Amino acid sequence: MENINKPKTIKRRKFIKNLLLTIAALSSPVILTAQEQAKRLKKWILGTNYNPFEHYWGMGIDIEKCIGCGRCADACKNENDVPREPFFFRTWVERYRIYNDGSTKIDSPNGSTEGFQKALDDKNPPIRSFFVPKICNHCDNAPCVQVCPVGATFKTPDGVILVDKDYCIGCRYCIQACPYGARYLNPETNTADKCTFCYHRIVQDLKPACVEVCPTQARIFGEVKKKASPLVRFKRMNKIAVLKPSLNTEPKVYYANIDMEVK
User: Fold this and answer.
1) What does the alpha-carbon distance between residue 202 and residue 57 come to, in Å, rounded to a whole number?
2) For 95-154, how does the pLDDT look when each residue is reduced to its tens digit (9 = 90+)?
3) Phi, psi (rounded to 5 degrees) for 232
4) Which of 4, 24, 71, 177 is the S-S candidate for 143 at Cβ 3.0 to 4.6 Å?
5) How many Cα atoms are found within 13 Å in the side-chain-facing hemisphere of 134?
6) What confidence tens digit (pLDDT) does each residue in 172-223 have?
7) Which architecture does CATH list for 32-263?
8) What is the 3-state secondary structure (H, E, C) of the chain?
């Protein structure tokens, strides 16, 4: 007779295994050297001449140029096989509406993948509205890297925060630690997932998908430190801010013309 409790038994065993791995890892934190990080990257840079030690990447976002079309979020889902459900996103766009009484409404229907409809519930129209693209900030001082008990989340030599699914045990520590809400647990792999700056594209000298499809060039991708980089020029020509600067996470996503209401 077939054991009808078998699926539950398998899940219980997997949970216990992950719990034991987490306890063991916490007693012996994983710290990766630059060389070890480079070894982890082989699966991403295989077949290319890309050298991660020659680059340091970041992104700029101009709030005034974003029109809320949602092409970036949709392209990201298509490019990276992100689940189509409305609560899994590597990037999304939020709409901010400011009212006379000082209140602010924020929405992001389906992450903006289908754009935004005119708000019909506003008896009094907002005095101002704008769109804010959100994404993993690829922090230089990333909390997600610090809390990962098995070293699955790591920072590459070129400044990108990646998740190695072969090591991730799905403990969700990094998801809780991210102050930007930029991570989720992939329902298909049961591992942490997030924006990678489309790492599989940049190692081939291509732009991230969200940058490629933006019709207004609201997103700028480039080198953080090289003077000829479009990102360096973007930072020099605009008043720049980062999200939640008080947390000292040192984000590498830089916003121009950002409003004080943005969180």
Assistant:
1) 9
2) 999 998 888 999 999 999 999 987 665 677 888 899 999 999 999 999 999 999 999 999
3) -65, -40
4) 177
5) 23
6) 999 999 999 999 999 999 999 999 999 999 999 999 999 999 999 999 999 9
7) 2-Layer Sandwich (3.30)
8) CCCCCHHHHHHHHHHHHHHHHHHHHHCCCCCCCHHHHHHHCHHHHCCCCCCHHHCCEEEEEEHHHCCCCCHHHHHHHHHHCCCCCCCCCCEEEEEEEECCCCCEEEECHHHHCCCCCCCCCCCCCCCEEEEEEEECCCCCCCHHHHHCCCCCEEECCCCCEEECCCCCCCCCHHHHHCCCCCCEECCCCCCEECCCCCHHHHCCCCCCHHHHHCCCCCEEEEECCCCCCHHHHHHHHCCEECCCHHHCCCCCEEEECCCCCCC
Length of the chain: 263
